[in-house]
Structure formats: structure tokens, C-alpha cells
Amino acid sequence: MTKGPQFQPVQPVRAYQRIVEQVEDALARGDLAPGQRLPSERELVAQFAVSRSTVREALRVLESNGVVRSRPGDPNGPEILPFSQSALRKQMVRLARVDELTLAELIGFRMIMDGAAIQVTSRLRTPEQLADIEETLVAMRAAIDVDFAAFSEADLAFHDVIAQVSRNSLIQTCNEVVRGVVLSLISDKIAHASNSRALMLESLQHHAEVVEAIRAGDGHAAARIARQNMYDYYAGYVPEPERETLRALIED
Amino acid sequence: MTKGPQFQPVQPVRAYQRIVEQVEDALARGDLAPGQRLPSERELVAQFAVSRSTVREALRVLESNGVVRSRPGDPNGPEILPFSQSALRKQMVRLARVDELTLAELIGFRMIMDGAAIQVTSRLRTPEQLADIEETLVAMRAAIDVDFAAFSEADLAFHDVIAQVSRNSLIQTCNEVVRGVVLSLISDKIAHASNSRALMLESLQHHAEVVEAIRAGDGHAAARIARQNMYDYYAGYVPEPERETLRALIED
DNA sequence: CAGCTGTGACTGGTCTGACCAGTGGACTAG
DNA sequence: CTAGTCCACTGGTCAGACCAGTCACAGCTG
């Protein structure tokens, strides 16, 4: 077996791709910053020396990736967007929807993420942040008397604050995405359950316990309680064989 | 203040967007599966009753999202791709490149994911799976004598087996993606470090410790060791102020 | 002078129709 | 039955056109 040069398979590079690359590179280099504007499509046609179709295909890709936004009639041209994690979120939702994730996997993931976020929070939180967290708890209590949607929103706020204090936006994004997917799978069952109010009260109690552990600064305990609570809350919807993997996440 | 109906701001829906939605919905419903083909562009023009430009813009978006792939001349039409985390990774790399994600966030995420996967693994692993894990450890040891790329690949295999045993493909995917991003950020520094071999040996030692804890079945200890090791391995690349959040992840 | 209004030069969204270089299956010659 | 040729059709790109919407500004009104 002769060892020749390592040739790579080469696929044709489309013109619109090179436009996308140029824009992304300019953005990475800092030549382009959020808030700035791209030239109009017709101007880009001249600069890139391609047809408008090609420019537009490139813009559609950039737009789909959350890099720019085009608005019809805007004389300033397409806008460079601030980097958000919306695109990342989109991919994760797609992953969750298409790649047939089981409920157990999603809930296990949440147990991990939320537990870790709470652990970090209980160690790094300032008194002000603790107050913020307790405030969301109050909001949750109040929302019980409205409806499940309101309660769910307050619950989201709670976990958002936690994730924010943990200073890790990746945790925040993942948590948010997975939470959304989980809810879309079972929120109906909860909202229409006859004991919906009881479930909300139970959840509230669980959150209060977590906050108590956070206040005490015991990260290990806070994480354990959070995972245990989430298990108690969701395990009923998970088929028995798969619960094992969730139980393995609960500290002894 | 009168309480009228809650009107939402409405923005125009572009034709190409509705095509994207239709395809993605069909995919989510299962009407379209990976490996299947989309009709040709000209056929889609007829089905959607729009122009080819519009169809093509939709295809570019789908292609950019990793949903389909078009090849010129292919009489079978665009191919529906199996989901891969490549699109997810692309988004993460983009976020990381513009410092929307700090290295600390990425490494913290890895510490969480990997720790959890190892915890589950140490509790659920069968003897055969333990053997598999130990086998990857042997491969890592052997790869040290090749080069850093080989070692990195063997390391990937190790964490892959772990994630697989943990029976959570979400962990697996996230781990893989984040690992890739982290490596793309600092692998150069490691590969070209004068003590590259020493770093690999240290990493190997760390992995061996983890495997030992897995063999003992002590999930808590295994997770703690894994996080500690990852901290030791990467913390040097993280600015001091941000290390605090990583330390908060290490059990006391 | 301030404020409103109408206008027109733009914008992006879509369409039509055309050409080209490739691909791959069918068809033919051996 | 195989090997080679060929052509219908693919996606990639281009040029030019029309439309509805937006925004800046000139000009009118008070």
C-alpha cells in the first residue's frame, strides 16, 4: 500500500456560500458589528459581481442563521443582528423533534442542567440575587390562583433567574429549550388534570425547598433536592424501564 | 384603560418561509424521512405554485439548517439528510467565535454533562460495558505515542462510550458538540505545547482515576473526580475571574 | 415658525425565462 | 451480458421586470 498525498474529496463551492463566508468572516474579524447595516441587495450585486438571486440566497441563509434581518422597504439595507442564541435554540428544538428523543432523556437532561445551575447558584449568589429568586417564588404562589399557563410562566422565570445567576448562558439556553419541549409533550396532561391545582402546589413546595437550600448555601443539597423534586414531578409520565436512568441521577 | 382583545404585532410571512415550514412539518410528522428525496426544484415550483427563486430560497434555508442537500444534476432531487449535530455545532461555533460564549461557559457545560454521564454510567454499567470503557482507556494510552490528533480521537471514543452507557443521546450530542468547540478553541495550544506529551499523560491518568471510580460503582465520587480532572486540565486557559463558576461545580 | 402631508426614490419579495455544466439512467454497439 | 455513448433533466446562475411597502424630505398648512 503506497502512502501518497492525502487528497480530500472536493465539492463545488456555490457562489452564495462564498458570499455567506465573506459576511461571516467580516463579522468575526469585527469589520461588521451588530446594529450596522449591509448594503442593499442591488448594491451587493455590484460588490460581489453576482446576480441578485445569488445575493438573495446568501441573505436567506444568513437570515436563517440569525445573522441579519431584511425588512422590505428599509432604505438602510439588511441589519446585522446582535448575536442571540435563537439559532442555537432552533437547532436544539429540531434535534428534539426529529431525533425522537424520549421523555426520559429530556427529563434526565433537565435534572442534570437544573441541578447544576442550582448548585452553582447556591454558592455564588449574592444577597440581592437571593432576593430575586425569592421574589419569583412569590410570583409562582400568586400565579396558582390564575391558571396553569400563568404558573408555568412564573416557573420559567424562576429557572431563568437561576440560570442567570449561574453565569452560564449555555445552561440557560439548554434549559429553556428542553423545558419547552418537555412542556409541549405533557403540559396538556397537567393543565387538564383534575388535580392540576394540587400539582402546582406540590411544585411550589418543591421550589420552596430548593430556595431554602440555596439560602443555606448548601450546593450539594440544593442540587439533590432539585433533582429529586423534578423526578417526583415528572417520573409518573416516564415508562418504568427508563426511570432507572433518572434514579441514577439522584444522589444516594 | 379598556381591556380589548390582545392583538399581536404581525409581520409579513414570506413565501419561502411557508415552504420551509411545510417541509419541516412534513418531516416532524414523519411524512418525510431521512434518505427520501424531495421533488426537483421545477416540480416543487408546480406543487407550491411559486417561482423557482422562491423555491430555491427555501431550499437554501433548509440546506443551511442541515435538513436537505442539493446536488447539481442529481435526477432524484434534493436528499433529506439524517439529523446530525453539525448544524448545532455550527451555531455553537458561531456563538463562541464572537465571544457570546466564553470558554468558561463551555467548559462548565462540559463539566456538568460529563460528570452526569459518568455518574449514571457508574451506576448502570454492565460488566461488558465496563470492559468497553477500559478498552478505550488502553487505546488512549497507545495513541499517546502517535500524536495529539490520535489521542484526541481516542479520548472522544472514551466519552462516547460513557455517554452511550448513560442512555441519553441528548447528553451524547451536547457533549460531542461542546467538546468539538472547546477543542477548536484551544487544541492548538495543547498540540503545540512543548509539554504536549506530559499533558496527554496527565489526561490519561485522570481518565484512569475515573474508570476506577466507575468500576467501584461510586457514582458520586466518579462524577466529582471527572469534574475535578476537567477543571485541572482546562482551568489554565480560563481567566481567573471566571474560574470561580467552575470551582462552584466541584463538590466540596 | 412648527407640524402635518404628499410624494417619489428607494427597498426587499416575487416572478419569468433563459443558459450552462454537470449527472445518471437508458439505450446501443460490441 | 457488458461497455460505451448519449440525452433528458438536474441544480446553479444570470438578467430583467413588476409590485407593495418604507422612509426621507420637500412643500404645504396652521
TrEMBL record, chains A, B:
Residue ranges occupied by any HTH gntR-type domain in the UniProt entry: 13-83
Protein name, entry field: FadR family transcriptional regulator
CDD domains recorded: WHTH_GntR
Pfam families per UniProt: FCD, GntR
Keyword Transcription regulation (UniProt): yes
SUPFAM superfamilies attached to this UniProt entry: GntR ligand-binding domain-like (SSF48008), Winged helix' DNA-binding domain (SSF46785)
InterPro entries (alphabetical): GntR_C, TF_FadR/GntR_C, Tscrpt_reg_HTH_GntR, WH-like_DNA-bd_sf, WH_DNA-bd_sf
Lineage, top ranks: Bacteria, Bacillati, Actinomycetota, Actinomycetes, Propionibacteriales
UniProt GO molecular function: DNA binding; DNA-binding transcription factor activity
Keyword annotations: DNA-binding, Transcription, Transcription regulation
PANTHER family: TRANSCRIPTIONAL REGULATOR, GNTR FAMILY, UXU OPERON TRANSCRIPTIONAL REGULATOR
